């Protein structure tokens, strides 16, 4: 388990797909820090490979990499394995033995399958992470843990937290940075390169025809990269010829004989079938497959099934009756939707779906039924209804390859928007990825523009501003001029959205002049001569947001008010809420704190949260926190920010993470806890570094320098601030940068 890898010994990591590149860019940023990391992803997707890569790029790659599989060590041994024991600590402990926490030194302790760690040890692990101290069993001496923990799991840890099987505090401790390793289905583009990579390790030189590579790219890989590697290994030994074409490949792709374990997984797969009556669904599957294998011949199918032909005929007849009933229900549902009687449509469409068999020949009916049910649910329960979103997803799956690709792309946009607004950011990224793929396949420039904007928007919220800008650049969507009018498939101003996220991401990256330019361009789109109210709302949102970041009070007031009233008139609920939050920021900057808070609360809670939208949550919490500080209510501010940080971490919404930490630190300081504040500010600074966020770095360093100055450590203060400002572009500096520069000058003079 103990391992001293060098760069050369590291498995070569293969992957160029956007999903994989995005992971790589996060690794590049978080690996050379001392943050604890959590690697998530399905079994076989490459979590260990990622952990080893993190180690190789860490601050101490020459130190050990200790790989511990928490699920593989018997429960009664795991404590002594992890923490070590003193001589005579228990029967059999004939000599003292160092545990993994000690063996790892300053290296990386990889806790694989962390979800399997017993609860009692979760508590101990948390204590080590918090105090950096641990005590071997039977020893009085506390030892210091100097390494870094990288944990991994294929489980849904948050669900385990909710079921009480995983400690919530440990989860949040681990989940500050989650490296999500995408499953192979999210990075099919990488399959040919992976195949070549694994083929190169075989003793026989294998070569693959284009058709065979295509077949492999389209196959299902429930065991992900490991399954693919195993298949190539088997080909390396068993393939008759080394020239692998699609025909040679097929037997290796066919499911192998069902072993005892396989029987369980087969039964599990059947139990997971989407149907109220699983027995019926399983029976239908068997009949369909038997008919398929016997070319539609019922007698032959009956033979395969081991029943009489009459049994097959009876089952098929009853299925036909069900299908006819389903068709009638679908027609009735459609009529209700057309007459805008959505409430009545819902039960009809649900019954229709219950009766529709899950078979290929009725996919078009499934598509239509799910689509109409999605439409009805949205109309009754609001735009962000999650069940409606699930219906659209099911419709999309059923409609794949059937008909109008543009309609499917539009539906996918709806799914993405709901996932984004409800802060399901990982799902939103996967959907945006599929949108890009679909748009490429469709060859539709409008769909491609839309997909690029969706991806950039998602990446921004995930805290990957550099990749967000790169994505806009790939889509040719940077610096949209006044006459650029790209409207995607949905018909709204994509350039305004692209400019918004260009400006916001550039601001975070410290490209202040690019951010200001984006604001100027948005301002040109805000005017009353913009004929489309929704497009005006989009431009107003972007311009107001940037004005807020640049502390441009004169602009912020009117922009926020315009956004609020325009959205109120036209029923854009979410944008009305955003307008109110910006108005709150403006009113607060004039000193009317109570009124400002009222605006912000109403904007966020009534118009966003109550409708299921949480997207704006960290930004508004940051701004509301500032307000509470100014209103001299630091305790309220701290509790608001603690909650906001929890939510941001839970959803991987990282963009304003460091800003939230900085405001929380100020609240602690204002309550007379400078030590706690200092710790929090250092953590904010390291978060800003890991996210490459220059604006957050300036804010955290300024506060930290002030705190150090006040506690008579001017030299340190100047050093911290000078380091944070190194390399920052000084043209058109925002007020926060001007304040930082002033403070640095004062510190220089004092020192
Ligand atoms: N990107 C990659 N490039 C090259 N090889 C890879 C890549 N990802 C995974 N592999 C290979 O696939 C196999 C499985 O990877 P790994 O053990 O890291 O998966 P895992 O997610 O940790 O699995 P488990 O959940 O079972 O622990 C290994 O042989 C690994 O070398």
TrEMBL record:
An example molecular function term from Gene Ontology annotations: sequence-specific DNA binding
Keyword Transmembrane belongs to the record: no
Gene3D superfamilies: 1.10.8.60, Homeodomain-like, P-loop containing nucleotide triphosphate hydrolases, Tetratricopeptide repeat domain
Keywords for the protein's UniProt record, in alphabetical order: ATP-binding, DNA-binding, Nucleotide-binding, Transcription, Transcription regulation
Domain of life: Bacteria
Pfam families with a match to the protein in the record: AAA_lid_14, HTH_8, Sigma54_activat
Listed SUPFAM superfamilies: Homeodomain-like, P-loop containing nucleoside triphosphate hydrolases, TPR-like
Sigma-54 factor interaction domain residues: 13-237
GO biological process per UniProt: regulation of DNA-templated transcription
Listed InterPro entries: AAA+_ATPase, AAA_lid_NorR, Homeodomain-like_sf, HTH_Fis, P-loop_NTPase, Sigma_54_int, TPR-like_helical_dom_sf
PANTHER family listed in its UniProt record: PTS-DEPENDENT DIHYDROXYACETONE KINASE OPERON REGULATORY PROTEIN-RELATED, TRANSCRIPTIONAL REGULATORY PROTEIN
Protein name: Transcriptional regulator with AAA-type ATPase domain
Organism: Azomonas macrocytogenes (Azotobacter macrocytogenes)
